[in-house]
Amino acid sequence: MSDRKSIDTNLAVLDPVPMEEAFGEIDEMALETYDLFISSTEPLLTELARQLAAGDTAAGVETAHSAKGAARMTGAFRLAGVCGNIERLCKEGNGAEALEWLALVPEAFDEVKRAISDIKAVHGV
Questions:
Q1: Looking at residue 123, what is its pLDDT?
Q2: For residues 118 and 110, what is the distance between their CA atoms, to the nearest angstrom?
Q3: What digits encode the pLDDT tens for the residues 84-110?
Q4: Where are the domains of the chain?
Q5: Which pLDDT does position 16 carry in this prediction?
Q6: 3-state secondary structure string, the chain?
Q7: CA angle 61, 64, 67 (to 5 degrees)
Q8: Tell me, what's the pLDDT at 3?
Q9: Rounded to whole angstroms, how far apart are CA atoms 2 and 100?
Q10: Does residue 48 contact residue 71 with C-beta atoms inside 8 Å?
């Protein structure tokens, strides 16, 4: 078994089902919620990086948990998986391995942003 950290590609980059369940369809409100997800999650991920760089795994637990929850509610399951691993490692006090997982966050978040952009293009936004 490899120790290499990798994004679980079996998970969806952006599953529309949570938003469809919340709004009935991908409508203007859902698209605004996607925008809110991006604008509110980006600072969380920046703060998480700062916390882990400072070795503050206690604060990292909360921040990773918040990012994971926001990603799950939005359907960004790959990003949620990465944040979930960081949260678990922070709970265990394993800051070094949490930092290794943190290195996957930019790619996972960029995938979500691209997927949201694609959805908005389909809806003429």
A1: 87
A2: 12
A3: 999 999 999 999 999 999 999 999 999
A4: 17-122
A5: 94
A6: CCCCCCCCCCCCCCCCHHHHHHHCCCCHHHHHHHHHHHHHHHHHHHHHHHHHHCCCHHHHHHHHHHHHHHHHHHCCHHHHHHHHHHHHHHHCCCHHHHHHHHCCHHHHHHHHHHHHHHHHHHCCC
A7: 150
A8: 59
A9: 14
A10: no
**CB-side neighbour CA atoms (13 Å) of 113:** 11
Tokens linked to 58:
């206690």
CATH number of 17-122: 1.20.120
Predicted confidence at residue 5, as pLDDT, reads 85
In the predicted model, what is the mean pLDDT of residues 50-65?
98
